[in-house]
Sequence to fold (480 residues):
Amino acid sequence: MSERPQQTRFTALLVAVTALVGCVSPARIAELGAEEATKVEQSMGILGDAEIERYVAAIGHKLAAVSDRPQGPWKFQIVDTPEPNAFALPGGYIYVSRGLLALVNSEDELAGVIGHEIGHVTAAHVERRIRASVMTSPVSIASGLAGLATGILSPSLGRMVSSSGQALQTGLVIAPYGRAQENEADRIGQTLAARAGYDPAGISNFLHTLEREVALLGDQPRERGFLRTHPITADRIAKTQERSPSLARMPGQSIARDRADLFARLEGIVVGADPAHGVIRDNVAIHPELDIAITFPVGWPLANTRQAVGAASPEKDALLVATVAERNTSLDALLAKLEREQSGLGFERFYIRDLPAARTQMSDRNRFIALTLIEYRGDVYSLLGQSAASSAARYNKLFDSTDRSFRALNAGEWQSLEETRLRIRQARAGQTAAAVMEHTGSSWSAEQIAVANAIDAEQPLGAGQLLKVGIPQAYTPRNR
Fold:
């Protein structure tokens, strides 16, 4: 139910792609790319800032126009994830993340990244390197839901049960490119950048920034990142640096007039985790855009995805999942539909804080499931508890107490929500990154400011020098 990015759900883009890529028609590749683009939008989310989206797309189309595939189709979008990343899908779908934009210091760098992804598409690397790699989360026992769902006669109820488990699983990811493919994409991307009037050294500069960020993070866990799918080697960096002077840079003008204009376009994007996608505090899941909070059992690790929030028991023998069952409907209407599909389902009607609710239970020899539906503000939510059949009595009370914790956010929770946005500030003469951090009130450390702005942390700055900083502020509701 949270939109906080976790690992993207990709299905197999091509059947046995490595062996059969030559047998798949361009039309089928485009169709598969479109299907996966829909999944990207659902699982990662698109930023939805029209101005910055147009800017990124303009750079992309400028580069694509001088590629080997100028006719396209191409689509350039920004995914709403905090990790710096860029990736491509078959059919010309190119994505950069808002986390990557926060590290960009010139349009040349951004053009280098986008050109690199265009290179992966035109060289057919994408089709050859997608692999199915199911990576289960701490709530991987959700996979058992699908088996029980197949025994439910009501199609809608079966989908509701099985999709609750799927919403918490992390699915398939794009495999890392090989060294030869990365070098080829670098070459193509740098060539396109030079043809479009950009400095082909932009990609080299950005790779250095990414390396610095990885070193800064140390052992901190990161989600999807550019370096995971685009491994960097010293040889690769050296080749991009050596190649740049040999590429004739054609006359051309950047879309952003200068660094100040670039920064002005980036200012205001959310950096780091976005509370709009859900917040977990101890055992309470908070979703401000839906105005709901749910209290899960103490000691149950919580997992957040864009479609659901859930928790697994410490023993990994029980699971709780909350998600939207059906939008723009009432509980009465949904129950009537379920009854039409299968009579005698046996939902018990009751109220949770004056909200209409209904509950049913189902089991087989191995699994027990308790499903509660709650109507709230024009939508129906589902809270699904699963356990081993032998543990049903033990966990059923916990399932019920979690269901009954469903509520609107209170005033204190609203007031405590905070977000960090990218802001542009001017340095004072002789300041270091640490001094900038102090006088701007940035939540970023001095080292983070240095990395994001491609400067040395101890470097004395010039008066008026523009810097990107992360500034915390009260949460701004998106849909109010």
Observations:
- Confidence is low (pLDDT under 50) at residues 2-22, 130-150.
- Residues 26-43 form the longest helix (18 residues).
- Residues 418-474 form one domain.
- The CA atoms of residues 33 and 89 lie 6 Å apart.
